[in-house]
């Protein structure tokens, strides 16, 4: 991938936001590929489409692009809160590309969060705009990507280093099974994935995961078999190649190139 933007496209523009939008979208069109199937290039939807920016002709995955200058932060500014919640709960919510770039207009980070990792819990409601604002009362939102499991943060470029395309495709496709799960079943899987991520070492034990029992009990107060549910999710994650079982109650994390 060429990490430099085509800055000649910005000639005649004075708005920084317009320039950033133009350059980042052009870069994605000319450099990215579909993380699901590897198809090159992606295609652009017509302007002002409310749901997504790009799509793949081969596998029909859809993508929305969010970009910002500087380093990748825990939260990403998004649009209207109500619209975002509605999209998450719909059948046609897109995957999200997040792109950060330097002052020299070069890519620093470029990652995708697959749509199955978007839940209402990662959407943070912002205070309404003041009565004196042009859009008084409007309520926006932020996307808190720190609450997304590591397996759901798939880097195509990290710290200006391109990640192997086959590795990206493998990582993206490993979690597609989540799209077939009910809301409740997916919630349990994602919660246990996040518990695994909170253990800051490569290997962990069943007893270490059990330490999150009370945290999960607060979220699922009517479930009296929390440990059973934890083991059930660990077995599923093992079967899907997201963690490895190494014996005697010990597990190993699979590296996603995103730590």
TrEMBL record:
<dbReference type="InterPro" id="IPR036388">
    <property type="entry name" value="WH-like_DNA-bd_sf"/>
</dbReference>
<dbReference type="Pfam" id="PF06044">
    <property type="entry name" value="DpnI"/>
</dbReference>
<protein>
    <submittedName>
        <fullName>DpnI domain-containing protein</fullName>
    </submittedName>
</protein>
<dbReference type="InterPro" id="IPR043025">
    <property type="entry name" value="DRP_PD-(D/E)XK_dom"/>
</dbReference>
<dbReference type="InterPro" id="IPR010324">
    <property type="entry name" value="DRP"/>
</dbReference>
<dbReference type="Pfam" id="PF17726">
    <property type="entry name" value="DpnI_C"/>
</dbReference>
<dbReference type="InterPro" id="IPR041368">
    <property type="entry name" value="DRP_C"/>
</dbReference>
<feature type="domain" description="Dam-replacing protein HTH">
    <location>
        <begin position="185"/>
        <end position="253"/>
    </location>
</feature>
